[in-house]
Write a structure and sequence with these properties.
Largest sheet: 11 strands, mixed
InterPro entries: Amidase_dom, AS_sf
Protein name: Amidase domain-containing protein
CATH class: Alpha Beta
Pfam families: Amidase (PF01425)
CATH topology: Amidase signature (AS) enzymes
Strand content: 5-15%
Mean pLDDT: 93
Low-confidence stretches: 1-23
Structural class: alpha/beta
Number of helices: 17
CATH architecture: Alpha-Beta Complex
CATH superfamily: Amidase signature (AS) domain
Keywords: Signal
Helix content: 40-55%
Length: about 500
Amino acid sequence: MSILSILFINLCMILSIFSNNSEAKTFSFKETTIDDIQIAFKQNKLTSRQLVEYYLGEIQKANPILKGIIEVNPDALFLADKADQEQKSGALLSSRLHGIPVLVKDNIATKDKLNTTAGSLALVGSIVPQDAGVVKKLRKAGAIILGKATMTEWAAFRSGILPSGWNGRLGQALNPYVASADPSGSSTGSATSVAANLAAVALGTETAGSILSPSNANSVVGIKPTVGLTSRAGVIPISHRQDTVGPICRTVSDAVEVLDVIVGFDRDDFPATKKASTYIPHGGYRQFLKADGLKDKRLGILKDLFGSNDIKAYQHHFNTLRQKGAVLVDNLEIPNIDLVYTAIVNAQDIALVAEFKMDLNAYLKKLVHTRVRSLADVIAFNKISVSEKFKEYGQDIMVTAEKTNGIGKLEREALSNITKVCKYGFEKMMKVNKLDALLSPGADIASLLAIGGYPGINVPAGYDKSGVPFGISFGGLKGSEPTLIEIAYGFEQATHIRKPPPSHPR
């Protein structure tokens, strides 16, 4: 080959690199959606490596302040290059998450160089036997595990006075909109990081509000699926009866894209995923992203759920819902409401602490390597912590849980009461009034949805005078995700309220 030929080839390579970099610079990374990214991939205006590099840069700048990400995957760029090679090879890529960076909450197991600790120092260095069920599905879809999102330690099941978003590994996470505002938990980092554009999308988990509440507090969309719709295998547990894994994203459409990938049967979470898989619609959930999704939907408003201030803040939203064809059924009362509140406050707590001990012990025993094999071991480890903050917050919930001894008479009575109030309370109200969904300010509906394993979606609804975000939640009966998606997407498209946080929290 002549010297001129070699020079010409080198020049072409330089021009190609310059062209790719120029095209990447023209791509709007901030607030980008999965749809934007996939279009840019197809048009050769963006690579997965460039996308990952952008997020790694943003994490390096903002995470020391926000503390939303507990660990970054050291293999993220390698995985991005692999995704780019697959794109170039012309392989048939059926998943829209291919090449997309995803954050997963720190209680969701990844069999890689990342820790899985629930924010606890006790689990640093532990080795999980395999990827969590939802992580397997993400990897199969070609998604890139960008890192682990921080969380309230042990999903807030360590202490009743533990601040939302605090853990012994990283300290206190901040709300990206207003630093003094509650970032909420326990999927704190998943919500704050996505809100601050440190990741494309994220996964959170919920037992009683941990997806809906941080989504509400950080102006993002959170989907809490019907329990069993997504696998809990490999997730550090609180309760097999209430735990669920769901997406936290900036838009309803992105959340639905992620949901489509992570739902489905998992033999490691049997029989819950087998039973719930019957709810999955043929063709997936993306088909329910309808701009006119509010038309003819009957939405219930509980009389006691909206206070006078809430009514004022949400009144214009009620008008929008009506204008878009929804029928609002207000001043509703849940049958046997006193029993429902008793179940939420008392029966749920009785059941959860017993389930926490049993389910956590089972999880810890399966680890390949760990310094703690039981809840008792975790409590003992915590007692020798040198952190003053750690000692200040205590571990009263863990101590209470350790005193339980399985499902005895008290727990069976509590579980029976929960079953009854769900059937003759929430479910009866929904069916008698022929409601498609119940709506609530913020995540106020979360506890009601939690005790029955019902689904819910939170969508950004505004910002108060101080700039603190607030959302609106829609909840329904088991398997009602298609209807909830139509409602949430219809509301989002009618309002377009979400805005990115300031460069620095106020």
